[in-house]
Amino acid sequence: MAEEFDVLIIGAGLSGIGAAWRLRHERPGTTFAVLEARDAIGGTWDLFRYPGVRSDSDMFTLSYPFRPWRGVESLAPAEAIRNYIQDTADEGGITPHIRFGSRVETASWSGGRWTVRLTDGRTLTCRFLYACAGYYDYARGHQPDFAGLDDFTGRFVHPQSWPEDLDHTGKRVVVIGSGATAVTLVPAMAPAAAHVTMLQRSPSYLTVLPGRDAVADALRRVLPAKAAHRVARAKNIVLSQAFYQLARRRPDRVKALLRRFALRYLDDPAYVDEHFTPAYQPWDQRLCVVPGGDLFEAIRGGKASVVTDHIERFVPEGIRLRSGRTLEADIVVSATGLSLLPIGGVTLTVDGQVVDPGTRVAYRGLMLSGVPNFAYCIGYTNASWTLRADLSHRYVLRLLSYLDKHGYAAATPKETPGNRRPLLDLTSGYVQRALDRFPQQGDKDPWTVRQNYLRDVVTTPRADVSRDMSFEESR
User: Fold this and answer.
1) Residue-range domains of the chain with CATH
2) What is the CA radius of gyration of the chain?
3) 74-121 pLDDT per residue, tens
4) Residue 458: how many CA atoms within 13 Å on its side-chain side?
5) 204 compared with 424, residue with greater pLDDT
6) Coil, strand, or helix at residue 152?
7) 191: phi > 0 → left, psi -120 to 50 → alpha, else beta; which?
8) How sure is the predictor about 434, in pLDDT bands with cuts at 50, 70 and 90?
């Protein structure tokens, strides 16, 4: 017999634990379980183990609104974030509800319930299914097919599968990439390495932020922890949203500002123009954060450098570039991006018909057209993931309460005619490679996905859960 629950949550990372906390504390009579494919809490923050791995969003907005961040770092290391998630699960009574080693393979809707089958053959059923597994492919990152890779005599690694035995002390390291992972790795590896080179095809925009939040530190000295957290959180939300709007409306002004940040550390206009001046506009791709200017400091100190060029092929001693130059390396790190995977790779079927997420439209950015009693959680592209995730959790709880109040068994979003466009609005390669696999969004509410927390935090808690929704009465 399959175990039965009111709600099943897929994933015990930042989102899944947040959803479980809301569910347990705001709907105490609801039965639920958290299905975690791996053997640990933390999701992304437990998976990635490369040197220096950290948040690129401030912890006052990345942490939960119901549990203050008490760490000293505003841009925290993965271990601190992982411990925070674990402590939240333990203190919130969520840990006993987590089923570790439970990878969901399929979920089938029929007869008013989801039947969830795990890869080990176990089966569970639920009234409502909530996917909180993010959108990264945990099994593998993106890996280009580099010519001549087998000829390379050094060590080749991908950050998503960082080997525990890798010692880069005194080694020549080349990090391929210019995104958040590369920007994190270079200054983390530079002190011990002989030299670290960041090899990029094209530059990314970098913004310098302090590792600690001076305002938050001051607030903590005079206010209780929860009050200080709320004020710091509100301050950071307003500043980040204002900066995003400025970048979209006055891109030239923001480009000049970011260039000044780089020049403040490097004092070399030609170097900055060559290696830190992208061809795209700010926030066409997510900005990379440099805590305390650590990347620039490593470059200025001679422990790191940047090369902007294309790879022609790998050779035994390193990488030959299109310009003819060869970068000699003992270790090459392929920080070439992530692979995206909708709904954690779970195959959904509704009344026997397989659901292709790429053909569906996102309802309020968290449900799929034509799919009953199902929600998925994704965060903002221009702000902390948790800001949007927590709004999604609260919306799901409101929908469950609406179903209970009116005696409904199921709610199914009904798509209304209109134009479609991509769900994720970034030009980054890892996003563009996967667009056809993700749902799209429409051109009018409630089928649009806004990247505006200040607006969403006002409208989402008041949104009409019955709009463009069909309901099935309980039998």
Assistant:
1) 3-139+339-473 (3.50.50.60), 149-334 (3.50.50.60)
2) 23
3) 999 999 999 999 999 999 999 999 999 999 999 999 999 999 999 999
4) 4
5) 204
6) coil
7) alpha
8) confident
Return the structure tokens found at 334. 């392929």
248 CB neighbour count, 10 Å cutoff: 15
Beta bridge partners of 412: 470
Tokens 């004092």 belong to: 267
Average pLDDT, the chain: 94
Length of the chain: 475
Confidence grade of residue 14 (pLDDT, cut at 50, 70, 90): very high
| Interatomic CA distance for residues 412 and 241, integer angstroms | 32
pLDDT value, residue 339: 85
Tokens found for residue 260:
């000044």
Distances (CA, A) of 211 to 55, 56, 217, 364: 10, 10, 12, 34
Structure tokens at 424: 């994720």
The residue type at 171 = K
Nearest to 174 by CA among 338, 336, 327, 337: 327
Amino acid at 326: T
As a 3-state breakdown, the chain gives helix, strand, coil percent values, each rounded to 5, of: 35, 25, 40
Cβ-count burial 175-202 (b if 16+ within 10 Å, e if not): bbbbbbbbbbbbbbbbeebebbbbbbee
**Using an 8 Å Cβ cutoff, are 262 and 299 in contact?**
no
For residue 252, give both structure tokens: 């030239």
Give the pLDDT confidence of 121-144 residue by residue, as tens digits. 999 999 999 999 988 888 888 889
Give one DSSP letter per residue of 45-103, joined into a string: HHH--STT-B-SS-HHHHS-TTS----S-SS-BHHHHHHHHHHHHHHTT-GGGEEET--
pLDDT at 289 over 80: yes
